[in-house]
Specification:
This protein is mainly α and 187 residues long. 70% of the residues lie in helices and 0% in strands. It is built from nine helices and no strands. The longest helix is centred in the middle third of the chain and has 24 residues, at 56-79.
């Protein structure tokens, strides 16, 4: 679902910083990744870093913004490959879970790590989840759109279960069953 971010030594310094930071923040965690590590792996100087970002917080925001745009594009495309949400959502998530570097939702992870310490990041995380819900709602019939919140809970639960090491096929089977049940109920 997400095209891999490959390090390109010929890319601009800003692109190398964003690519490197996105990979390290996702693999190691935001707090565990120091700016010096990002600078070294991006093959730039500290001065160059500060020309592009005034702080690590600004870099975190830029990385999450970039990931949001990439992830939403892939998610929306993946949802289009099936007619019903019962098939489309599990297939979209499964394609993401099968990626070699899957480590859960970068936005859930950032929220868990940062809490509400950076309001601009909290706003971006909320926007990401809102746009994810909107993409799901667009896949639903008009009469089922009021179930979007319940479906989001199911999707988020599936994301965390797979992140915690549960077998993706089993989680997707549970998700399909739960989606069918939610969509069949009048509540």
């Amino acid at each position: 679902m997400l095209a891999p971010l490959l390090f390109n030594p010929d890319a601009t310094a800003r692109e190398r910083l964003l690519t490197t930071a996105q990979r390290l923040f996702y693999q190691q965690g935001i707090r565990a990744t120091g700016i010096d590590s990002v600078i070294a792996e991006a093959q730039i100087t500290k001065v160059t870093f500060y020309r592009h970002f005034s702080s690590k917080n600004q870099l975190i925001f830029a990385v999450l913004e970039q990931r949001h745009l990439r992830w939403m594009q892939g998610f929306q495309q993946a949802l289009q490959h099936a007619d019903s949400i019962t098939d489309a959502l599990p297939a979209a998530l499964k394609s993401w879970f099968d990626e070699g570097d899957y480590r859960g939702c970068a936005f859930i992870n950032a929220s868990a790590e940062l809490g509400d310490s950076l309001p601009e990041i909290v706003g971006l995380i909320r926007r990401h989840k809102h746009e994810m819900a909107e993409a799901i709602a667009q896949k639903l019939t008009a009469s089922a759109r009021d179930k979007t919140g319940q479906i989001m809970l199911l999707a988020e639960g599936a994301i965390v279960r797979v992140q915690l090491g549960e077998e993706a096929e089993r989680v997707m089977a549970d998700l399909r069953s739960a989606l069918a049940a939610v969509l069949q109920t009048g509540a």
